[in-house]
Design a protein that fits this description.
The protein is an alpha+beta fold and 404 residues long. It has helices at residues 13-42, 49-62, 71-88, 205-219, 226-260, 271-274, 289-302, 304-318, 364-381; strands at residues 2-10, 104-107, 114-117, 122-127, 131-136, 144-153, 156-164, 179-184, 190-192, 197-198, 263-267, 321-325, 350-352, 361-363. The two termini are 38 Å apart. Residues 304-372 form the Cas12f1-like TNB domain.
Length: 404
């Protein structure tokens, strides 16, 4: 099984400057390659990795600054660009801004990377052209190194090793008949059909105040000034702590849920579409822009997509299956009788079924999670682990072309 191991680096001043230079070169290669691909697409042509790699080799003879970085990390940048364009489309791939993108680059040749442990707390790795770099040994590698990615987050540098371990995904979960549905919300991050509420605060009041003051300070600085760089660095430090807390929360919740349940059901939420801006255009101004902005921030703060990724990763170690279902009416449907109406949900947390003779009452998020669970069981019974078919659709026989 392939897994990641991330450690904090202790670089020398020369190594930090060299890593910054490598990151800037990779950023330039990415942006140049993306611009070339877009120009080809506008003319109706297509550009892929092979011709771009050949042109990169020719460009190194003309531009000396390209020779400063190892060839294989530049080639890997073009490979990553090629994959991003194929997965998302050439015009949806983002530019790597110098102000917003954190430097990173990958050494793809694991056979050229040597890792040694120096003691209980420290280890070192030999990376091409960087030489021996020291890192904090916070956990064992546990396998053979396939690649290494060096990145900067805030003021700290990190190295992430892609490791091939001897672990395999279990063929069957330890409790094969267990099922859970999860409702992701803006008040409680995740609510399960078992009635468990998973949530925590990722930012303190003091951090909110300091971040707001830093934003005000940033607004009064000039672009490119030292004071602006200091303000941005301080803001990134605060946001880094918030991001780490959110990632730790999602990992812990994912491990708990996948350890206890063989089937985990989520709503198929398009987080990027749900958090799109409502500002509109010059000719068609947006509606309820401030309310939509607040909702977007809340959704992103709760880490909906990150929890989904954490569940998919944790499921590899327990043998659990992750199913996504259509989210339509899960918050309005009664999980007891199936009656659907907007009036069933009286408030954010109160659900009371308005069907005559039912009167089912529950926490609104728990009721929604139970509807998600029921939909996931129906999809799993049809043998469909995706969201391409209706929950009620039966599998079609290939021989007859009809439902069995």
């Amino acid at each position: 099984m392939l897994t990641g191991r991330r450690y904090r680096l202790q670089l020398t001043e020369a190594q930090a400057e060299l890593s910054e230079e490598y990151g800037n070169i990779c950023r330039s290669v990415w942006n140049t390659g993306l611009d070339q691909r877009r120009q080809y697409r506008r003319r109706g042509g297509w550009m892929n990795y092979v011709p771009q790699a050949a042109e990169l080799a020719d460009a190194k003879t003309e531009h000396e600054w390209l020779k400063a970085a190892p060839s294989h990390i530049l080639q890997q940048t073009l490979k990553d660009l090629d994959k991003a364009c194929r997965d998302h489309g050439t015009f949806k791939v983002r530019w790597r801004s110098k102000a917003r993108w954190s430097p990173s680059f990958r050494f793809p040749a694991g056979n050229l990377i040597i890792v040694e442990r120096l003691g209980r707390k420290w280890g070192r790795a030999k990376l091409p052209k960087l030489g021996w770099v020291t890192f904090r040994w916070s956990r064992p590698l546990g396998g053979e190194v396939k690649s290494a990615t060096v990145s900067r987050k805030g003021r700290h540098w990190f190295v992430s090793f892609l490791v091939s371990t001897e672990e395999t995904t279990p063929e069957q979960h330890a409790m094969p008949d267990t099922v859970v549905g999860i409702d992701r919300g803006v008040v409680v991050a995740a609510t399960t059909s078992d009635g468990d509420f998973h949530d925590r605060a990722f930012v303190t009041e003091g951090e909110k105040t300091r971040y707001r003051r830093l934003q005000q300070r940033l607004a009064h600085t000039k672009k490119g000034s030292a004071n602006r760089r200091k303000a941005v660095a301080a803001m990134n430090q605060i946001m880094g702590r918030i991001t780490d807390r959110r990632g730790d929360f999602c990992a812990q919740v994912a491990n708990q849920i996948t350890a206890k349940n063989a089937l985990v059901v989520l709503e198929d939420l398009k987080t990027r579409n749900m958090t799109a801006s409502a500002s509109g255009t010059l000719t068609e101004p947006g509606v309820n822009v401030s309310q939509k902005r607040g909702l977007n921030r809340t959704i992103l703060d709760k880490g909906w997509h990150r929890l989904e990724l954490a569940l998919a990763n944790a499921a590899r170690y327990t043998g659990a299956r992750l199913v996504k279902v259509n989210p339509a009416y899960t918050s309005q449907r009664c999980s007891a009788c199936g009656f659907v109406t907007e009036g069933n949900r009286e408030s954010q947390s109160v659900f009371v079924c308005k069907s005559a003779g039912c009167g089912y009452t529950a926490h609104a998020d728990v009721n929604a999670a139970r509807n998600v669970k029921a939909a996931g069981q129906a999809v799993s019974a049809c043998g469909d682990l995706g969201v391409s078919r209706s929950v009620k659709q039966e599998p079609v026989s290939r021989a007859t072309g009809r439902n069995p």
